[in-house]
Amino acid sequence: MTAQAAAPLQVLVIDADHARxxxxxxxxxxxxxxxxxxxxDTLAADAVACPVWLGQPDHVATLLRRGIAPxxxxxxxxxxxxxxxxxxxxxxxxxxxVGIFGPVMSEFVLCHLLAHTQQLQARQLxxxxxxxxxxxxxxxxxxxxxxxxxxxIGQHLAAVLNSLGMRVLGVASSARSQAPFVEVxxxxxxxxxxxKADYLINLLPDTPATRDLYDAQLFAxxxxxxxxxxxxxxxxxxxxxxxxxxxxxxxxxxVIDVCREEPPAPDHPFWQAPRLLLTGHTAxxxxxxxxxxxxxxxxxxWQADKPLRGEVDFARGY
Length: 318
Fold this sequence. Notes:
Blueprint: E1 10-14, H1 18-28, E2 33-36, H2 43-49, E3 52-55, H3 57-64, E4 72-75, E5 93-95, H4 102-117, H5 120-128, E6 144-148, H6 152-163, E7 167-171, E8 183-185, H7 190-194, E9 199-202, H8 216-221, E10 227-230, H9 239-247, E11 253-256, E12 276-278, H10 288-303
Parallel strand pairs: 1-2, 1-3, 3-4, 4-5, 6-7, 6-9, 7-8, 9-10, 10-11, 11-12
Helix pairs in contact: 4-6
Keywords: NAD, Oxidoreductase
Domain D-isomer specific 2-hydroxyacid dehydrogenase NAD-binding: 112-283
Pfam families: 2-Hacid_dh_C
């Protein structure tokens, strides 16, 4: 008698871009049986049959609320806030998308730093008015950026800005020595470090310690004319306090990629605030090609019962 071949591992893909993930996995891991989580009639049965899920947290949360959970979920997002709701189970392994967003986030931030130094909005207005000479420009070289959140994304951004001759400071959960940052302080050092920064860049995840971090008191500590960029989570900012800081001329501008409510209500003050740009949660989209590489690396670790890259500690929230 011949030994019976083991059944292929079943993976459920629950993502708006499920077809792309299916194609990539079929090419790179043909031994897997990949099921798309796009059929409402079979979704629950497929979810029960698949021990491994690959998907976006908001879609996955609906299944978890129905009492169905995987043994391991690889999130296609860096943020996993929808999965941390108090009514959801936590008896499964969860890994965030890590190591893939540094380059694209750096491009986003650099784009807006350059737009600010080159006065692109004012130059466009001068063009529309038929004026040849616009305002004077400055260089990023020699200016100071404070990156709040020094994980893999912040680390990559720091290297990019450092290569342009910027002085780069950081804020992390605790003070540390971390190249190429000149200094990395804990969250308690944020007001003091913000007072030195020409550019204040938030990359923090949503945790109890990071909510309402950017309030009137913090903005009052900022260097006058500083540009604030929030590409972390909307819950970190007290919206009314940011608008007030802009209206008072305390800040030179704000680029807001993430909000507490997305999109903001039509009457939200962000729409009318001076020198504030909403970018519609586009700072770091997931590239399925890079995410599949992370998934396959973690799949091998999961099958060997080893630590996962980006594994979430539910108690910490990241």
